[in-house]
Amino acid sequence: MARIIGIDLGTTNSCVAVQDEGGTPRVLAAPDGRRTTPSVVAYTGGKNSESVLVGEKALRQAITNPKRTVLGTKRLIGRKVNAKDVAWFARSAPFKIVAAPNGDSWVKIDDTTKSPQEIASHVLRHLRWIAEQALGEPVTRAVVTVPAYFDDAQRQATRDAGTIAGLDICRILNEPTAAALAYGAHRVKAGRRIIAVFDLGGGTFDVSIMAVENSVFEVLATNGDSALGGDDWDRVLIDFLVDAVFDEHRIDLSSDAVAMGRLKEAAEAAKRALSSESSTTISLPFLHQGIGPDPIHLEKKITRQQLDDLSSSLLQRLREPCTRAMKDADLSPSDIEEVLLVGGMSRLPAVQEMVESIFQRPASKCANPDEVVALGAAAHASILAGDEDEATLLDVTAHTIGIKVGSSGFAPIIKRNSMLPVREHKLFATNIDDQEFVEVEIYQGEADTISGNRRLGQVHLHDLPKGKAGTVRIRLTVTVDVESILRVTATELSTGNSAQVRIAPSGGLSQEDLSDIVEQRRLREMAQPADPE
Does the pLDDT at position 373 exceed 90? Predict the structure, then answer.
């Protein structure tokens, strides 16, 4: 049986790993030796001869081709275009973000629109190709990680991206869980140990509180912010530089896509430099042609303290999810024995200081934060393949799932941090004589009203038996599986027969959409056989 690979599909960079025959997970490097792949996709060529670049190739031409180069797709996948953080992302993105017919966030390239699932599939397909080159065998199955705080729509969208890439995603695994596996936390044999995994990546933030005992790996609580990550630190630096140019030259660079692309690249480089240095200089000659005869050159020294001051509100946003997770687990900082750092942004000293302030202890730095999630995914893939059975994973739901009641109320059915898999029931009765159908709206979130929560879809139950109001009863069964994927069924109790239920999703790709995208890709590959993505 072909091996199952582990993939960390990241906002900024992605990574692929596999468990070797000796039982040790290892990162699979590309033929050029690179161990991570930028999560960047670029579309080149004309309308009838479009080709796709992925990773370093796409990143190298991002400045000269900004409107057709897409990065940060993970911040869009499974999200509505009118979400506050998506709108903020759209204001600074060099490419155009538009609304799909169902309100999802899509990307417009020239005259065509592309779903984030399709764009992410190019990255997944490239990682699959790297694995096949490294292993010398076909690869069709993968464990793919997502932030623990991803909701149902984002998880389903990630699975759809795998389908488009030709990958059978055997399991959607939470990133903090994968990271703890890679750290080897499950190998602790003596006693019960409480750990926290602090995962701050390019676009998302998660924290999970976990108990480890006798190779049983139990998530006690999870929390996070799916709209907070390294991109936001880049953005405050970019805004600072744009303001500096405007103050000096009275020119607004925000409408110059090429200049903004150069600023984005420089901001990322400066952020990385300030993780280990107290200051760095951003030097961008000929950044803009200017108003008069002289072009604008940008030369700006940035100190670590300046970055910390600019990002102080972002740093403060890290605190509440951590305290909420500890409160949900009924624990205090003194109960946490170790804090594991994950994600490239965890290298920033100010972030590490915030972690120490929250948990009242220095964090562990014993693993590469860019690779640890993929390594954990590979370890879990080995468990699924039956090659290893060391660890038992017990995860929890990240969000409360419930239904709309009345005009705007929200009634929880499955509470957040419920152990997975979980199944709960809700009984209904008809409220008018000879009622023919019921419709139940499903929401996800922690607010008391539906306006503060996310609509997941609607259950339609038709062909009810005739009867007086209150005599026909329906049992709604809500199940969340080990991947946090939601399923809903209904049974009409007066006859004992299961009723036909259809979930009408409020977003995402339909089966027809998926089939069309896969077919279009097949035709493109036949016409242009393949320089690998």
Answer: yes
